[in-house]
Design a protein that fits this description.
Glutaredoxin, four-stranded antiparallel β-sheet, five-stranded mixed β-sheet
Length: 171
Amino acid sequence: MEERTGIVTMKGNPVTLLGREIKEGDKAPDVELTATDLSAARLSDYRGKILVISSVPSLDTPVCDMETRRFNTEAASLGDDVAIVTVSMDLPFAQTRWCGAAGVDRVVTLSDHRTAAFGEAYGVLIQGVRLLARALFVVDRDGVVRYVQTVKEIASEPDYDEVLASVRSLR
């Protein structure tokens, strides 16, 4: 498996990402994740919609919490042709608990805990700690990646305006 360094830090310390880098223009890898009801969910289930994929280390951390709440708020103004999915290594039970406590009802949370297939396919799996790096991918209706943002410092929030501008440019 490909290893990439110098891209992301965790509290200032460099980490190694596993998997190949996804670039704009690539076909979005279709992976199986686990939904909060423990059923299988595939990213291709969202084909035909503009898909925002938010990769986060854990919903139970302050920055991931803020980011997912922000996208939940933004989802209301984006319309039904846009789906926002947050992927983490959190167990589906923890995702359900967190969404209920946070009032998140427009963002779909999916877990990569079983196989780390998403982390590997999207190149955001952090070696050694089995968490996902903070990254965002905007995928068009045909399943092509149109925007990628890998946040340099995991403890930092993404550039929301860039992500939202990318989504709006696809309408």
